[in-house]
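Q: Given only this backbone (312 positions), what sequence would you predict?
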């Protein structure tokens, strides 16, 4: 299904901390990689084996396009940059995050659970990089080129339209290749629904991004987590349905009366780990949307500790 000149290096796992799939685009100068995978050495070695299976080596990689600055997509840059110095493309808002990954604590809203009194692990200051360290290590990288959010990327003989799909990351980039109809959705659509946070675009940004993806005439979909899929419209709709199903669950939990935010998070996200991260961040995204629609009200302290449904 992939056009000649494009190959996919796919991780067999799709559930976090699975490494992201890597697209390879061959050209006369060597290879372009779209994402590079997780920052574990064994993941990088598998990437090198993949290149070798196509008659290439790391030295042939002259360009890297990073869909966003998250560890499962760019963690392996720490190894790659020890061997080569490729051009590195990133969305402008992701460039400072890649250069200084500690800034992900802000875009991941890591302080949000503590603001609501959710701190089962008695952390003074949650650190997302520490959380990543044993699962899927992050690394830093300096971008050499900024992706035009409203433009195109010419990679090899292909010209990709850039589609920004925030929610999971403000600068999350999907790529559409009109000649073949290939839609590379990164984390916007795949076998799993990516988490989302208020500072990364929220649920509203996520849904708007899905609308932009649905508007392109895609013939098939390539996700960062999962297999190539020949029904892009169905998969995009499925992701939207999963998001709204979570919203329905929140409203059901509020039907009997007001619920404190920590209790609501625990009801919606049964796993204690998820109820700390990214559950509260996801819940806050839904409440922001529902408040804007006049369906719920958060009251109490500044950020609202008691959540109640409103009559419509």
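A: Predicted residues:
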């Amino acid at each position: 299904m992939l056009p000649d000149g494009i190959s996919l290096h796919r991780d067999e796992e799709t559930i976090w901390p699975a490494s992201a799939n890597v697209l390879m685009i061959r050209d006369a100068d060597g290879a372009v990689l779209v994402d590079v995978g997780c920052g574990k050495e064994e993941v990088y070695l598998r990437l090198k084996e993949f290149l070798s299976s196509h008659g290439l080596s790391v030295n042939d990689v002259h360009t890297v396009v990073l869909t966003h600055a998250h560890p499962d997509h760019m963690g392996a840059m720490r190894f790659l940059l020890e061997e080569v110095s490729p051009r590195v493309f990133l969305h402008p808002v992701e460039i400072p995050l890649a250069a200084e990954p500690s800034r992900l604590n802000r875009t991941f809203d890591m302080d949000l659970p503590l603001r609501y009194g959710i701190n089962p692990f008695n952390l003074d200051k949650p650190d997302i990089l520490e959380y990543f360290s044993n699962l899927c290590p992050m690394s830093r990288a300096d971008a050499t080129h900024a992706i035009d959010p409203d433009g195109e990327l010419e990679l090899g003989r292909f010209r990709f339209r850039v589609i920004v799909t925030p929610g999971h990351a403000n600068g999350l980039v999907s790529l559409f290749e009109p000649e073949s109809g290939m839609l590379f959705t990164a984390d916007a659509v795949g076998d799993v629904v990516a988490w989302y946070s208020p500072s990364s675009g929220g649920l509203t940004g996520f849904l708007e991004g899905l609308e932009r993806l649905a508007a392109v005439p895609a013939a098939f979909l390539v996700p960062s987590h999962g297999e190539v899929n020949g029904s892009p419209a169905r998969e995009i709709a499925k992701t939207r349905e999963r998001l709204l199903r979570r919203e329905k669950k929140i409203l059901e939990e509020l039907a009997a009366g007001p619920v404190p935010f920590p209790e609501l998070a625990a009801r919606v996200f049964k796993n204690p780990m998820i109820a700390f991260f990214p559950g509260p961040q996801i819940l806050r995204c839904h409440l922001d949307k529902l408040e804007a629609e006049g369906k719920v009200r958060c009251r109490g302290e500044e950020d609202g500790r008691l959540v109640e449904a409103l009559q419509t």
